[in-house]
Amino acid sequence: MEQKLDLILEKMTSIDNELKNVHDRLDDIGTQLKQIDDRLNRVEKRLDQVETRLDQVEARLSHVEERLDRVEQEQKLMKQAVMETNEEVKNLQESFKSVYEIIGEHDVSIRTLRKKIM
Question: Are 100 and 108 in contact (CB under 8 A)?
Answer without folding.
Answer: yes
